């Protein structure tokens, strides 16, 4: 059991990824690449709700990514740009 | 982190949550599904659909699984539950034996 986890979201999918505050963003992308069949280089991670793009070489702690944080995943498109953040919110009734 | 070590839980509205198998096993119901031989077709593909559980509740349950593991390993944080989801969350927890 690692110290924390983050919630990586794209469209209607959420990945719960266990991690330590000292791990870098690149290490997170490498973990994700095992799950989504996309190389780290084609992933961009964006801290929500602030919308800050996270830098590969910095650690989670450096960029204030805490336990249970929501991080948006965007993928590289055919034109080499990254797609916009898209997280679908559930439309529940209580 | 390997794909084989995760499970995909799918809510009523078709939202997907990919979590560690170890976390999912906090639920006795999911544990039974994942460990009983050959009885649940879903578990062979590592995914379980919950037509009765809505997305907000299922996400809260996943957060609870991780909180539960962290708590068991000695981290004493509180688990926050919004009052408006309490009833549905309790019903889902009862179903999941969590």
Describe this structure in words.
The complex is a heterodimer of chains A (94) and B (98). Chain A has 94 residues and is of the alpha+beta class. In chain A, 13% of the residues lie in helices and 29% in strands. The termini of chain A are far apart. Chain B is α+β, with helices and mostly antiparallel strands and 98 residues long. Chain B has one domain (3-96): Potassium Channel Kv1.1, Chain A, CATH 3.30.710. Helix content of chain B is 46%, strand content 13%. Chain B has a three-stranded mixed beta sheet. In chain B, α4 (55-72) packs across α5 (86-96). The mean pLDDT of chain B is 90. Chain A binds chain B through residues 1, 3-5, 7, 12-18, 31, 34-35, 67-68, 88, 90-92, 94, and chain B through 1-3, 6, 11, 13-20, 22-23, 54-57, 59, 62-63, 66, 69-70, 72-73, 75, 77, 84-85, 88. β2 of chain A pairs parallel with β2 (16-20) of chain B.
Find the structural class of chain A using helix and strand composition. alpha+beta
**How many helical elements of chain A?**
1
Order of helices and strands of chain B: EEHHHEHH
CATH hierarchy class name of chain B: Alpha Beta
Instruction: Please state the second-level CATH architecture of chain B.
Output: 2-Layer Sandwich
Organism (chain A): Solanum verrucosum
Domain Ubiquitin-like (chain A): 4-80
Protein name (chain A): Ubiquitin-like domain-containing protein
Pfam family, one (chain A): ubiquitin
Give a quick rundown of the structure.
The complex is a heterodimer of chains A (94) and B (98). By secondary structure, chain A is an alpha+beta fold. Chain A is 13% helix and 29% strand.
